[in-house]
Specification:
5 strands, globular, single chain, Transcription Regulator spoIIAA, alpha/beta
């Protein structure tokens, strides 16, 4: 079940609030069952207000968890701050980003 500040509809999960070093450990614990169903999961990041490198590391954890579960994963509406970190770290081929309306 999605955490507070998140909601799931089918295989679409909406994340809001902060994705930083203070919030990431709890968010990772609460996302354990997000990839239980086969098919595609889209995590919508439009509601993320602040993200740092710990938030990007969380996306990498979710990619790993989805692959282990056999689920296809994509991220939609990543905020510019998060996209900049992903670009700087050359993670574009690892973290599947979609445009603003996916």
């Amino acid at each position: 079940m999605p955490e507070s500040g998140s909601a799931a509809t089918s295989n679409r999960i909406t994340v809001s609030g902060k994705l930083d070093s203070a919030s990431v450990p709890d968010r990772l614990r609460r996302s354990g069952d997000w990839f239980a169903s086969a098919g595609e999961t889209v995590i919508d990041l439009a509601g993320v207000e602040r993200a740092d490198s710990a938030g990007v590391a969380l996306l990498l954890d979710w990619v790993r968890d989805a692959r282990a579960a056999g689920t296809t994963l994509a991220f939609a509406n990543a905020p510019p701050q998060m996209r900049a970190i992903i670009d700087f770290c050359a993670l574009n081929d690892v973290i599947p980003l979609r445009g603003n309306s996916a």
